[in-house]
Amino acid sequence: MSNLNNEERRIARSYARGEWKSVTNRKAEVRRYQSYVRDAMQKSSRVNIRISPQDLEGMQHKALEEGIPYQTLMASVIHKYVAGRFADKRD
């Protein structure tokens, strides 16, 4: 593990702890993520926003978990919200 960077070591340790799970329906998951990318690629405007460093870091971690760029995840969240498909988890 000595030739890995910090992020790669963190992922390797996570894998060794058994925190990674196999996808039950790989084809469906691939289609789902392809739709995210398709939606994100249909961009027509650039937007600059200011967010807290904690929110950006959280978004980057979520994107890493999903295996997609954080900008794509942010675009997907906004798209789902505008389309009325964004579910808010409230207890």
Fill in the keyword field for this structure.
91 residues; mainly alpha
Question: What does this protein look like?
Answer:
It is a single chain. 59% of the residues lie in helices and 0% in strands. It is built from four helices and no strands. Helix 2 (26-41) packs across helix 4 (70-82) and helix 3 crosses helix 4 (70-82). With 91 residues, it is mainly α. It has a domain at 22-82.
Short summary of the structure?
By secondary structure, this protein is an all-alpha fold. It has a domain at 22-82.
Structural class: mainly alpha
Question: What proportion strand?
Answer: under 5%
Parts with pLDDT < 50 across at least 5 consecutive residues: none
What count of helical segments does DSSP give?
Answer: 4
Rg value: 16 Å
Distance between the termini: 41 Å
Biggest β-sheet description = none
Shape: globular
Q: Which bin fits the share of residues in helices?
A: 55-70%
Total strand segments: 0
Would you list the SSEs in sequence order as H and E? HHHH
